[in-house]
Amino acid sequence: LQGLERPPRRETSPCQAEQIETVRAVHDLLTGDLARRVTIEELSRRFLMNPSTLKSVFKEVYGDSIAAHIREHRMERAALLLRETEDTVAQVARAVGYESQSRFSSEFRRAYQLLPREYRRRARRFLKPGDYLRLEKLCLFCCGSCPRAFISLVWDSRYRSGGTPSCFLNTLVK
After folding, report:
1. For all residues of the chain together, what is the average pLDDT?
2. Long-range contacts of residues 92-96, Cβ cutoff 8 Å, at least 24 apart
3. How far apart, in whole angstroms, are the C-alpha atoms of residue 34 and residue 49?
4. Rounded CA gap, 52 and 70, in Å?
5. What pTM was estimated for this model as a whole?
6. Furthest-apart CA pair in the chain: how many Å?
7. Which of 8, 24, 28, 93 has minimal CB crowding within 10 Å?
8. CA atoms of 163 and 61, how far apart (whole Å)
9. CA 146 to CA 128: how far, in whole Å?
10. How far are the Cα atoms of 8, 60, 67 from residue 11, in angstroms, in the given order?
C-alpha cells in the first residue's frame, strides 16, 4: 500500500484575491448606507462581476448570502436605533432600508422574537445607554445560543463590580 496514499489536499480558496477584494468593496458599499436598496444586477454592473460569481464569492467570504448578511446588519442597526434614539418605528424602518413599516416589523420580529416597540420597551426597562459590550460572534459567556442579532452583553448593576455578564436575550425575556 505504500505509495498508494492520496496526495495531500491543498487548502486553497476557489475565490481569487481580486474577487475577494471586489466582494469586500460590495460589502462596504452595502453596509455604508443601509437605507439604500441595491439589486444584485446593479452591483454586478457596478463592480463588473457576474451575478452568480458575486453571490458565490460573497457567501464564501462572509458565510451568508448577500441578502441574509445585509438583513442581519439592518436588524442590528435597527435594534441600536430603537435602544438609543427616540425615532419612531417608521423612521427606524426607513433608516435601515424598509419602506414598509409592517414588513420591517415582521423582519425585526423574525430576528429578535419581539416587535420593535416591545423590544424598545423591554430594552429601555433593563438598559441605559452605554451598557452594551459588542462582540463579533455568538454570545459564548452565558448560554452560547444567542443568535447573532443578540450580540450584546448587558452589565446589570449587580455585575458591575466584577461579576458575570448577563445575556441580553435572557435579560429581555425575564
Report:
1. 76
2. 92/116, 94/35, 95/34, 95/35, 96/34, 96/35
3. 22
4. 17
5. 0.67
6. 72
7. 8
8. 37
9. 21
10. 9, 14, 28
And the C-alpha cell for 68?
441574509
C-alpha cell, 157: 448593576
- Of 72, 56, 67, 64, nearest in space to 22 by CA: 56
State how far the Cα of 172 lies from the Cα of 169, in Å rounded to an integer.
5
Residue whose entry in the numeric block shows the C-alpha cell 454592473: 45
- Residue 87 is predicted with a pLDDT of 95
**Chain centre to alpha carbon of residue 118:** 20
Long-range Cβ contacts of 85-90 (<8 Å, 24+ apart): 89/116, 89/117
Burial 90-100 (b: 16+ CB within 10 A, else e): eebbbbbbbee
Q: How many residues does the chain have?
A: 174
Give the amino acid at 102: S
The alpha-helical segments, DSSP class H, found in 33-140 are 40-47, 51-62, 66-84, 89-95, 101-112, 116-126
Which of the residue ranges 13-22, 60-69, 81-90 would you say has the lowest mean pLDDT? 13-22
Q: How far apart are CA 58 and CA 50, in angstroms?
A: 12
